[in-house]
Amino acid sequence: MSAILPPPDRVWWKQPIDRVEGTWIAIALVWCLIMFFMMPYWHVFGKQNLANEAFKTTPEAYTRKAQEVVDKYTVRTETAQNIPVVHPPAGSDVYLVARLWSWWPILELEAGKSYRIHLMSMDWLHGFSLQPENINIEVHPGYDHVLTVTPTAPGTYSVICNEYCGINHHTMASKIYVK
Amino acid sequence: MAVNRMFRTCPTTGLKFHQPAEALMKWNAVAAVVSLLVGGILALGVTLTRWQAVHLLAPDWFYLFLTAHGLNMLVFWIIFFEIAVLYFAGSTLLGCRLATPKMAWAGFWLMVAGALLNNYAVIFRQDSSVMFTSYAPMGAHPTFYLGLILFAVGALIGCFVFLGTLAVGKAEKTYNGSIPLVTFGALTACIIAIFTIASGAIILIPTFLWSLGLIEHIDSLMYRTVFWAFGHSSQQINVSAHVAIWYAIAAIAFGAKPMSERVSRAAFLLYIFFLQLASAHHLLVDPGLTSNWKIFNTSYAMYLAVLASMVHGLTVPGAIEVAQREKGFNKGLFEWLRKAPWGNPVFSGMFISLMGFGFLGGISGVMMGTEQLNLIIHNTLYVPGHFHATVVVGTTLAFMSLTYFLIPVLFRRQMMFPLLAKWQPYLFGLGMSGFALFMMGAGTLGMPRRHWDVSFAGNLFPHEFPGTAWLMIALMGISGLVAIVGGIIYLLITVGSVFLGKKIETPDFKYVKAREGMAPAPQPVAATLTAHHGNIGMAGFVAPGTFVLAIVFLTSFVLYYFVNWKYLSTVWPLS
């Protein structure tokens, strides 16, 4: 007469369901459906969605495109390593290169304008983590992932790597400036 | 056929143990506890490093500890224990002989060899700190993958021995009618395990060949997609196994029977159909997969597997409530719960496991598995926060509670340090719950997981996390230490009792021949198709207290769900 013994009724599947169970199943099912429909709802009415735009490419082709943007729109360089700070026009394609253990180049964007930011890794997996916004995206080698982002408020934001990428993973950090 | 068919009947519980099954259960349980010991030592190093005020280990050692901790806990401790649970649910609960004990031993030794080989790669070679996930193209030494493959093959053999045992029980008519609910839950775990191990083979074998240089390229997205069919499904084995254990403990500690066999079994069936789809929620912010694919899969096909867990979350305490009310604890909403044996670690551990799994692990899991919400959670400390609530508070604590039952019944030893045992589930369960909760808090504030130094000391572009996040990390460290003390006590009690505990002698102890161990021939049972509970409960509800708890759960769930959408709506628009 318990869960560790065979059911006493041979035809246990005909035993009526207790009211408490039936009620709970109905409530839980409704809640599950609400949660399910929230996701398509947000695609239509919400503003934070991934667009599913991605391309297979090679590190060489991707670096070439990133270099073109850097050549065109660099406004200054930072640190002893002369990392370029790129200020692209609104609506343009910007390429962020992730590699062991740095992000390249530094972006300077304008609040309220939209940009097509591309993310790709040159080597292993990396994690694009924009702080303190807390937007987190997986960065793959060989997949150029396009996000159309619209910064909301001016400030200095950090990009840190949050996919473990080896011994110096914790040093992989950069900035995004929003004016 | 030289099959050993010797059984002993446990004088306290009346359970029938088949001699070879008993030995296999003991050895698997011992291997599990040894893995837990190794994983626990590593946990101390990991916690004391992430707790930035201590920051114990250097980065190479931290990543090494973290890799080995994940594998020893998530894979070796849990799966060794699960194999013991399968043999218990198959052979012991059906009162039948274990199928092919020699194959079972071969499986066991393969698992041991695999676990040793994998630990050799990580701890002794020190060139395989690739984490539990071992994402290609980051590569480990071939012995790392080979160890996992051997272990998985051994576990697969264990699964088939369990299935064979079910067939033996049916053929030799050792039970009447359908298999018990707990065995049904174990069967669910076994079916999911076979799917899991097949996925593991599909990804780990090519990766092993790649590490040997025989395959040129492993695509990172392909790896992550197939890996999670293995990595997350293996957590679904745990869910099925620990839910089965909850039912078992409710039955053992209270004589509780399922409120309705149909509902509980249907819920397990939903696990088989839908739970693995959840593996896709690791890929919600990956390129190259469409939103349609993500939404369908990560909702486990419209949350039908979440529904199943919500059903178990009601029916397990509901069964306890009904049993308690039938015993006379029928006053008010919660007399049944107040008068529960809170000093018995078998029960208290199980109940904390149930609560922690539901409130902390379950709710946070649905948040992470929601396509857009994953953007504000992916790879932050929220993720380990979530799975310490599910796999540690949920699974590990359920296994610990079951151990307290198995020490006298399976190992025939008296439990040592009963006073410590009384407190152990509280220390471990509440410490670990705090640990998980504070990690989730730090993750909500953006702190990354698997990160040696969130202070970015000496970095060109340091990021400063808010003060609250630092407080969370400190509280996480303290709660982690409390949980580790709970873990040490568990190890002390189990190892002490099994090796040094007082033997339980029974005068009429004997092994009986198989035929005597068989169930009587099926008797025609008069149909009693009513919800045959006496005059208990209130308002037509047999378990009103549980229903109120369930509504509290649902309210927190709904509120927290929409709080997260609100938070998401404040971040930079993305399209």
Could you write a compact summary of the structure shown?
With 179 residues, chain A is of the alpha+beta class. Chain A has helices at residues 19-45, 59-73, and strands at residues 53-56, 74-78, 83-86, 93-99, 102-104, 106-109, 115-121, 126-131, 135-139, 143-149, 155-161, 173-178. In chain B, helix 8 (261-274) runs antiparallel to helix 10 (300-326).
Portion in helices of chain A:
10-25%
Number of E-type strands of chain B: 3
End-to-end separation of chain A? 71 Å
Oligomeric state of this protein = heterodimer
- Discrete helix count of chain B: 16
- Major beta sheet of chain B, specifics? 3 strands, antiparallel
* Percent in strands of chain A: 35-45%
Question: Per CATH, which architecture of chain A?
Answer: Sandwich
Residue share in helices of chain B? Answer: 55-70%
Q: Which class best fits the helix and strand makeup of chain A? A: alpha+beta
- Kindly report the average pLDDT value of chain B: 91
What is the number of domains of chain A?
Answer: 1
Mean pLDDT of chain A: 94
Sheet with most strands of chain A: 7 strands, mixed
Secondary-structure element series of chain A: HEHEEEEEEEEEEE
Poorly predicted ranges of chain A (pLDDT <50, ≥5 residues)? none
Q: What do we call the CATH homologous superfamily of chain A?
A: Cupredoxins -  blue copper proteins
What's the level 1 CATH class of chain A? Mainly Beta
User: What is the CATH topology descriptor of chain A?
Assistant: Immunoglobulin-like
Q: How big a fraction of the residues of chain B is strand? A: under 5%
